[in-house]
Amino acid sequence: MQQWRLLNHGAADAYYNMAIDEALLLAQIAGKSSLPVLRFYSWQPAAFSLGYAQKTAEILNEAACRSGGIDIVRRNTGGRVVYHQRELTYCMVAGADNPLLGTNIRESYAAISKALIAGLKNLRVKADFVGRKQMAKHNKSGGVCFLSPSWYEIVVGNKKLIGSAQRRTKGFILQQGSLLLENNANFFDYFCIPNIQRKELKEHWRNNTTALWELINPSPLSVVQDAIIQGMEKELTINFTADKLNAAEERLGRDLMTKYRSEEWARNL
Length: 269
What we know:
The chain is α/β, with parallel strands linked by helices. The protein has a single domain (about 1-265), classed as BirA Bifunctional Protein, domain 2 (2-Layer Sandwich), CATH 3.30.930. The chain has 9 helices and 11 strands. α4 (about 105-120) packs across α7 (about 220-235). It starts with a strand and ends with a helix.
């Protein structure tokens, strides 16, 4: 049975969250950490994270975000913009050759999705994943991750519940994902789009996404995390051990904070 590290970091700002996720990846690439890791966290204050190839000015009203106290950060993974507020976020870092995660990106998405679904089952949530063809109706994405099709989307009753994005580099996988706890489409008010399109996207969002607290009674995040951990351990045949950042990861995280706070990185100029 494989041994994995488990990190529970609670709430932090967007720049710290993205810096630590990348630090976990770089530490494994550099041989400063040898075990796969799963990290849970949330966001304070609320934030938009853009996919690696997206440009802030093409999507968001930056002045409105500043006025609303909303951070903007660009992820190191692909995909599209995600609004982070009432959610539980996970980060997984492991070797791309880990036999439990398959041999390619599609197989790794499937393996991780199955593990997440097993965790949701512990919460009495009957979830499933579907492929690209079945998600073709999500074609009005407006650059939004939860409204754009991807492999192995996790859905409940054809409504998306968990969105994920992955990066593979130098023999390792970094996957980040968001489990919605509450559903609110008002974040579209911060988009650089005409009002008619904003109205359409809000309606599309309500029709095609769901949130955990819509499916079960609200519970402490520790209960949700424990359910997911137990499901992952069973599905992937692994054992998690609670841990903390090592010295190399802490140092890398501090260094990367400068990058993620920089305007050049955030705006993808």
